Amino acid sequence: MRSDDDAMMKEIARQLRAPLSPPVSGSFDARVMSAVRRLPRHSRFKLWSRLTTPRTVTFTPLSWGLLAASVALFAVIGAARAFDDIQVATKPMVTALFPKTAAPRPPQRVQFVLVAPDAKKVAVVGDFNGWDVDHAGYQAKHRGGGVWSVTAPVPLGHHRYSFVVDDSVWIADPTAPRIVDSDFGVANSAIVVQEQK
Amino acid sequence: MNRSEFSIVVGLLCLAHPILAQDARLSARLDKPTLAAVNAIVDSARISKLPTAPLIDKALEGVARGVNGESIVVAVHQLSLRMGSAKRALASNATPDEIKAAASALDVGVSVRDLARLRAMAGKQPVTVPLAVLTDLVGQKVPIPTATDLVLQFARSGVKDSDLALFQRNVRADVDQGADPTVAATTRARGLVARGGPSPKPSE
Question: ipTM of this predicted complex?
Fold first, then answer.
């Protein structure tokens, strides 16, 4: 009987000395928070978490190529635009340094005339005014006898233009070379403005 | 490509987008899909070293005429193709005005080969006015081979631009009065080349 008691006491002592299995991980609060973190998150927090959590990203050779091509496209277009901007920005300086070669080419004043006896309004539209029917500088005035005219500045070069009568009827200049335009199926007039010598 | 890489590429393109051509007039007048398509064509032309102003002007003209967006995109695209052909025909040092005038000539049926012949015949002289006159003659129903031969003849003879412009006006006046376009053009041309100057005005 005594030996049985000793054995039982030894077993109890062994059980008490043995480490707990499974081990308890931290406090109750920690275990609760761990369980909460495992729950599905709101998408807003998911995005923030994706942005702020350090991660390892793998790139394939193909995707590196696509990435490099995108960067190259970005750089080429940016450089082209910058070059244009630089040209515009440095134009006054170039003009000052090389007055003969880079002399400004001012627009020439061109008279547009249309005979339209029944018209209430006549405007000139073309490459030189952004095809803007309401452009103030290109509204013709009635000179009497059905003759409408306006003298307006036109930059040097080749331009397409047309008259617009009463905001609705498009008429090519009867006296100018005509461009039968297949794109919109209508005729425009052509004018080549050259520097006065 | 995984999601991260795709996001980076898309991000870069989004960053690049404002740098691409953005003409304020186009932005104000075109709807978004049309604007995006036109801007893409304009950027492509810029990279090909083609003049971009005519493309923008073409789109603006379409808006002013009340043409729908799809037709505007097609028109701008066709013009960019014609300008590309024109530039190749006129050589790389062609001016924007020459390319623009040559694109109009191609539009009425003048061949790339004839553009190259005119360029060769004119030497270093600009061909903008001869091309405008050629386009006008064809538009007045003068057969393309006849109109081309006349303009090549003018280039060979060194006829001045001002005389060419007067020739064009005289032919148009003759046609308006009922003359056959081919007869009017060849007759006026004969007088111009023979005298080495412009033919007299119709009223004279």
Answer: 0.79
